[in-house]
From TrEMBL, chain A:
Residues 88-302 form the ABC transmembrane type-1 domain. It comes from the Bacteria. This is Sugar ABC transporter permease. Its main location: membrane. It is found in: Cell membrane. Signal peptide: none annotated. Belongs to the binding-protein-dependent transport system permease family. InterPro entries: ABC_transporter_permease (IPR051393), MetI-like (IPR000515), MetI-like_sf (IPR035906). Keywords: Cell membrane, Membrane, Transmembrane, Transmembrane helix, Transport.
UniProtKB/TrEMBL annotation, chain B:
PANTHER family: ABC TRANSPORTER PERMEASE PROTEIN MG189-RELATED-RELATED (PTHR43744), LACTOSE TRANSPORT SYSTEM PERMEASE PROTEIN LACG (PTHR43744:SF3). PROSITE patterns: ABC_TM1. Belongs to the binding-protein-dependent transport system permease family. It is found in: Cell membrane. Keywords: Cell membrane, Membrane, Transmembrane, Transmembrane helix, Transport. It comes from Deinococcus radiotolerans. Pfam families: BPD_transp_1. This is Sugar ABC transporter permease.
Length: 313, 310
């Protein structure tokens, strides 16, 4: 998918270069005039945070007085802080949601890829949580999780829960309860991407295999799944990185790591150091940097697990 | 299995035709069974996905009763909670709606105009530094930007967007402060560049030979032909701006300036005595996004796929 796209666009670029408007000072100025407003905001709000944020991680800074270089002091403070470690552990625990959400999304995509009557309704229905804000979704689920609430009655009805207590109030279950909401909200998003991936797999190949006597599961494991590999890479990459950076759903449903710090995430730590009252932007930037490095590492793991997203089919 | 539903013609003496008809019948029956099972699973998932919304709607319409319990129908209907949300709180709900609308209009306008402009030279013009700019933007997309919230907060303050002078200018600056950090959308740039690359070069050449200025080519050729992508992107951005809450909550000191999503959290925090009114607020927050999503769904899904395929 990606390599093919790049090849086409390069050739395309070449073609433009060959026949397009010639390079003159005037044309160059016009080109930059088109891009100028975009580039200014891009540098200000995308490039500058990367640069200045990396610098801030090595300084003491509270906005009022200028940043003061302190070397690795922030990182030493960070790694000595049990609260940060617990946040990082929770962020890593959150990655557990990734395989679950990917497997379910693939299954749901296979299901809604069937030419059934009314399938459009189901695709739309599954997508509604995706377009709803975490602020709203988080509120709704914190009501559903209340004592005597809908989730508890379902769980008790199924015999999965004995005492009626809120899952969000219990340190052993709070993080998993929020994870379920992430799962619920994310399935529709990945389903659409997998649906696009499925439509990219050649029908003829699957049909040829079926005619040659392959069973349904053989077709799935040997043709469909390898064909989905580029999509799996993109989706697992996206969901791993957002799992490590988990913040908004926790912020709404379990403020300040409630209960007992059991839902404190690494980015929540960074957030509270900056905006929780002490304006320790240096420490917050250092924590963000650690999160960034961890998500890069996990991105690389994703690449190797999906063999770089190359499809064999 | 001998079956009365077999067509009469298949019952003639030819055993092969009979067998074929039986096999076909068997396959059809299995197919029906499989479809039935598929529908059962589809409906179950749909219930899990939609019930939370339905529950919120039902509960927001009830005047009294056991608030958090699971329910299928409301015990009684009343608009009291909806009136309450507008009048019974310290958070001015009309103002929140107005803020959200202004932020969305500004945000969607900025992002689409900036991206449609900037993507044009990158797709269709030759100039020094083009590949450099393109690949730098690619790298920015991959680089994790966790410091965004922290540094953008500092930038916003340094730009003086939170200064206090007179109410009207303050409001304008605060809206800008909410909108600007997202206004240069890298995803949008990619989508638009891809759309422009699909437009025949001959059209552009012909216009250039006729002496049309680049701005005219952009407006008269590129924009109309890229309309589906622009629509997809605009809907994506509308959803993003309507739903954003964290940035606004972090940055805006004045609670009257909050957009709906952010204000809803404020409401649930300061107004915990009446959760039903907060539920009514949640319903009001969801409705516009649902309308826009359902209307532009076809474009929306396309845009989403394009955004990932790059």
């Amino acid at each position: 998918m990606t390599t093919k796209g790049r090849r086409v666009s390069r050739r395309e670029q070449h073609r433009i270069g060959g026949t397009g408007a010639s390079v003159t000072v005037r044309n160059t100025l016009i080109a930059y005039a088109f891009m100028l407003p975009f580039l200014i905001l891009l540098v200000l709000y995308h490039t500058w945070p990367v640069i200045f944020g990396s610098y801030l991680a090595f300084t003491k800074y509270n906005i009022i007085s200028p940043p003061q270089w302190v070397g690795l002091a922030n990182f030493r403070e960070l790694f000595a802080d049990e609260q940060f470690w617990s946040g990082l552990r929770n962020s890593l625990k959150y990655v557990l949601v990734v395989p679950v959400i990917q497997v379910i999304s693939i299954l749901v995509a296979l299901l809604v890829n069937r030419p059934l009557r009314g399938i459009g309704f189901f695709r739309t229905a599954y997508y509604v949580p995706v377009v709803t804000s975490f602020a709203v979704v988080g509120l709704i689920w914190s009501w559903l999780y209340k004592q005597g609430g809908a989730v508890n009655s379902v769980l008790m009805g199924l015999g999965l829960m004995r005492g009626d207590h809120s899952l969000l109030d219990n340190p052993a279950t709070a993080l998993f309860a929020v994870m379920f909401v992430t799962l619920w909200k994310g399935i529709g998003y990945y389903m659409v991407l997998y649906l696009a991936g499925l439509q990219g797999i050649s029908r003829e190949l699957e049909e040829a295999a079926t005619i040659d006597g392959a069973t349904r599961s053989q077709v799935f494991w040997n043709i469909t799944l390898p064909g989905l590999r580029p999509t799996i890479l993109v989706c697992s990459l996206l969901s791993t990185i957002s799992a490590i950076k988990v913040f908004e759903e926790l912020y709404v449903m379990t403020p300040n790591g409630y209960p007992a710090g059991s839902t404190y995430s690494a980015l929540m730590y960074s957030f509270s150091k900056a905006f929780g009252g002490d304006f320790n932007f240096g420490l917050a930037a250092a924590a963000s940097m650690v999160v960034a490095v961890v998500s890069i590492l996990f991105g690389l793991i994703n690449f190797s697990l999906t063999k770089g997203g190359r499809s064999d089919a | 299995m001998p079956d009365t539903t077999l067509p009469q013609t298949a019952l003639v003496s030819d055993p092969h035709a009979r067998l074929a008809a039986q096999l076909k019948e068997q396959r059809l029956r299995r197919e029906r069974l499989r479809n039935g099972a598929a529908y059962a699973v589809l409906i179950l998932i749909a219930l899990i996905m939609l019930y939370p919304f339905y529950w919120t709607l039902v509960t927001s319409l009830e005047p009294t009763g056991n608030i958090y319990e699971a329910k299928i129908l409301p015990t009684a209907l009343s608009m009291r909670n909806y009136l309450e949300v507008f009048s019974g709180t310290t958070v001015p709900f009309w103002r929140l709606i107005l803020n959200s609308v202004i932020i969305c209009v500004l945000g969607v306008t900025f992002t689409t105009v900036l991206a449609t402009l900037a993507a044009y030279p990158l797709a269709r013009m030759r100039f020094p530094g083009r590949d450099l700019i393109f690949y730098s933007i690619l790298i920015l997309m991959v680089l994790p930007n966790e410091s965004g919230l922290i540094v953008n907060y500092i930038t916003t303050i340094k730009l003086g967007l939170l200064q206090q002078t007179n109410p009207l200018a303050d409001a304008a600056r605060q809206y800008l402060a909410v909108v600007l950090p997202g206004a240069a959308s890298i995803v949008g740039l990619f989508l638009l560049r891809q759309a422009y690359l699909g437009i025949p070069q001959e059209l552009i050449e012909a216009a250039r030979i006729d002496g049309a200025p680049e701005l005219t080519i952009w407006r008269r050729i590129m924009l109309p032909l890229a309309t589906p992508t622009i629509a997809a992107f605009a809907i994506l951005e509308f959803v993003a701006y309507w739903n954003s809450f964290l940035w606004a909550r972090v940055m805006l000191p004045d609670k009257n300036m909050l957009p709906l999503s952010a204000g809803l959290l404020e409401l649930s925090g300061t107004f915990s005595t009446n959760s039903r009114a907060v539920m009514a607020g949640a319903v009001i927050t969801i409705i516009p996004i649902l309308i826009v999503f359902l209307m532009g769904q076809k474009y929306f899904m396309k845009g989403l796929e394009g955004a990932v395929k790059g």
